[in-house]
Design brief:
flat; 53 residues; single chain; two-stranded parallel sheet; mainly alpha; 8% strand
């Protein structure tokens, strides 16, 4: 369990503003993530791979 799921499980808060993944985001996927984020007014790291081991 990582990121917002862990925060919610521990009862710290109900949600977060990003989505964490354990898989590396390559350049192509990173570009698509950035485009979706820009289109919807999300932070640049709304989907990130910082939860990777």
């Amino acid at each position: 369990m990582v990121g917002g799921a862990y925060v919610a499980y521990r009862g710290v808060r109900a949600s977060t503003t990003d989505v964490d993944t354990i898989y590396e985001l390559d350049d192509e996927l990173g570009g698509a993530v950035a485009a979706v984020g820009e289109r919807h007014g999300l932070e640049h790291d709304w989907l990130n791979d910082r939860a990777r081991p």
